[in-house]
């Protein structure tokens, strides 16, 4: 018995990182998965890997910031797999820069991929989920949406918007059985992050920031998404689940003293 048996799930950003891990985890729990990405052949690789492991998946190439693409993503899902129960709106992007450095085009681009995508996901997925009598939407935000990370202001603004859009959509659609939640990952070892932390100084800052003492793995976010997708979280909606290896709760001072008993030091 899988936790998502008989469910149909769309996962966006499924060509790589958290989305690829989520698509594989959902499929391993019995869902028929639609792997969506703007990089169609890479999304197909995720779907093929799921099929090779005995799961059920198709791939759709789509730009999640484009209304026509998102409408098609949902209509093709329903026509090919019969329904829609879960939407993991995970695709996202980052352009670094302060308010002075960023162009207006950068602002619109990042807000389009990170925020308009979540709005469009709701716009087209909710009517399909209503046909099933309910569903679960999970949006990937970030710990950058919870505090004022510098150097990437539009990213921080976009992820804060995802958190509050999640709350508002939950308020609207929970009475119809559609739960809407967000996940706020800490630093997760996906391809763009691996490139970033290849600089040892940046790796050290990131390791120090997470009290668990390591970066997260995409599968650890996929596990959180699975819980929010499944009926195990049936009384949870409008929330943002922080999965950050202790980053947000950690004091800037770190540990004041070695907590081990003297004989173990
Ligand atoms: N990795 C981290 O440390 C971290 C931390 C917090 C939040 N996040 C968020 O997690 C999500 C996934 O990031 P990741 O680290 O797995 O990155 P990733 O680059 O490995 O995967 C992102 C995928 O999204 C796809 N994508 C980008 N724009 C798209 C668009 N317009 N339409 C369709 N697909 C598009 C890319 O092609 C890529 O395959 C993002 O929303 C990101 O902001 C990541």
Describe the protein in words.
The relative contact order is 0.14. The model has no long low-confidence stretch (mean pLDDT 97). The protein is globular, with a radius of gyration of 19 Å. It is built from 8 helices and 7 strands. It has a 7-stranded parallel sheet with strand order 3-2-1-4-5-6-7, sandwiched between helices. The protein starts with 7 loop residues before the first strand and ends in a 22-residue tail after the last strand. Helix content is 44%, strand content 15%. The protein has one domain (8-188, 217-246): Rossmann fold (3-Layer(aba) Sandwich), CATH 3.40.50. Helix 1 (17-28) packs parallel to helix 2. It is of the alpha/beta class and 265 residues long. It has helices spanning 17-28, 40-52, 67-81, 104-130, 153-173, 191-196, 200-209, 218-229; strands spanning 8-12, 32-37, 56-61, 86-89, 135-140, 178-185, 240-243. Bound molecules: nicotinamide-adenine-dinucleotide. Nicotinamide-adenine-dinucleotide (NAD) binds at residues 12-13, 15-19, 37-39, 63-65, 90-93, 113, 140, 142, 185, 187-188, 190-193. Nicotinamide-adenine-dinucleotide binds at residues 12-13, 15-19, 37-39, 63-65, 90-93, 113, 140, 142, 185, 187-188, 190-193.
Could you outline the blueprint of secondary structure elements for this entry?
Layout lengths: L7 E5 L4 H12 L3 E6 L2 H13 L3 E6 L5 H15 L4 E4 L14 H27 L4 E6 L12 H21 L4 E8 L5 H6 L3 H10 L8 H12 L10 E4 L22
Parallel strand pairs: 1-2, 1-4, 2-3, 4-5, 5-6, 6-7
Helix pairs in contact: 1-2, 1-8, 3-4, 4-5
The structure holds nicotinamide-adenine-dinucleotide.
